[in-house]
């Protein structure tokens, strides 16, 4: 009898604790939107060496990365982004920077896995991951899903309409990023604005070398990098497309910007990348292409980083550009 009473009391006590916790959570104030352009840290680095104890959606985040958010005035939402600063960068030193654009259903953490961060650390870079407003927003490239730019895998289900779903595609959990705007054209526009706003924030806060600002993107973000790269060509020293291939105008603003295209041998987008690179090179652009054996559409993200950073190291902005 005593044992039964003790068990009953423990159960009642547990229920009371759960009730109190739920009540506290229910009454907790909803985080208020930050003032436009104001940035704050939401998750500081949790380690000084390689490790991946956090997640951004389904994407692993290296322990050395700082996760932030800022007030996005266009929709009055807080927009997340991530920053890693190499320990090799000394105070007062101008540092090279890479702005990274995620693929379809990705987020600001896609390039913040240890394989990417380690290359930024080794080469002394600032690495910045942007949200681009929505996991499916194409960084302003409204031609993304019309079949003209080919930046999403050619296998698997067709892409959902541009916008912010209640859950991320493929069962990847709750959507990350903006949710207030869902009109495809406006979401695409906001994607570009968010990307360039984060770049502006980082350039104001950190001592960035204006002659070594680089842009890279994976899959959908690769086509986004081509679009944003061309539209704001005066900013970038070089642009890298990883398993995602847009087709800039050979006579356009990117004609004097070094371009790097890469894909894995196990990726159905590989042939498209090779063809695009060959066409641009034949038109006189400074283009490199490399196929990496054994890599697929996902493993190419970290697998390509040694070559991508080597390419960036070799291509600071030309004087007079």
Describe the structure.
The protein has 321 residues and is of the alpha/beta class. It has a single domain (34-313), classed as Alpha/Beta hydrolase fold, catalytic domain (Rossmann fold). Helices cover 30% and strands 21% of the residues. It contains seven helices and eleven strands. It has helices at 2-27, 114-123, 184-205, 220-231, 270-282, 300-303, 305-313; strands spanning 39-43, 54-56, 59-61, 66-72, 77-85, 95-101, 126-130, 208-218, 238-242, 259-264, 287-292. The strands form two sheets. It has a nine-stranded mixed β-sheet with strand order 1-4-5-7-6-8-9-10-11, sandwiched between helices. α4 (220-231) links the parallel β8 and β9 (238-242). It is globular, with a radius of gyration of 22 Å. The relative contact order is 0.12.
């Amino acid at each position: 009898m005593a044992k039964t009473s003790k068990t009953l009391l423990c159960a009642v006590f547990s229920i009371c604790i759960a009730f109190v916790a739920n009540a506290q959570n229910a009454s907790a104030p909803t985080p208020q939107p930050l003032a436009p352009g104001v940035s704050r840290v939401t998750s500081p680095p949790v380690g000084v060496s390689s490790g991946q104890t956090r997640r951004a959606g389904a994407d692993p985040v290296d322990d050395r990365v700082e996760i932030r958010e800022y007030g996005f005035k266009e929709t009055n939402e807080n927009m997340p982004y991530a920053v890693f600063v190499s320990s090799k960068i000394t105070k007062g030193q101008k540092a090279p920077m890479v702005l990274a654009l995620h693929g379809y259903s990705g987020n600001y953490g896609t390039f913040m896995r240890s394989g990417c961060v380690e290359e930024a650390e080794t080469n002394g870079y600032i690495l910045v991951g942007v949200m681009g407003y929505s996991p499916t927003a194409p960084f302003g490239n409204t031609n993304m899903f019309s079949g003209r730019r080919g930046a999403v895998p050619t296998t698997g289900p067709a892409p959902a309409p541009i916008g912010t779903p209640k859950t991320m595609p493929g069962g990847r959990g709750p959507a990350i990023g903006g949710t207030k705007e869902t009109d495809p054209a406006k979401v695409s526009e906001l994607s570009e604005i968010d990307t360039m706003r984060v770049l502006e924030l980082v350039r104001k806060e950190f001592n960035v070398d204006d002659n070594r600002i680089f842009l890279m993107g994976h899959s959908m973000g690769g086509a986004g990098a081509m679009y944003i790269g061309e539209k704001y060509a005066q900013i970038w020293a070089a642009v890298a497309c990883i398993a995602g291939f847009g087709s800039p105008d050979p006579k356009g603003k990117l004609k004097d910007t070094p371009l790097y295209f890469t894909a894995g041998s196990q990726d159905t987008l590989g042939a498209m990348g090779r063809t695009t690179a060959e066409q641009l090179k034949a038109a006189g652009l400074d283009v490199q292409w490399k196929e990496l054996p054994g890599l697929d559409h996902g493993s190419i993200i970290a697998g390509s980083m040694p070559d991508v950073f080597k390419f960036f190291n070799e291509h600071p902005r030309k004087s007079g550009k």
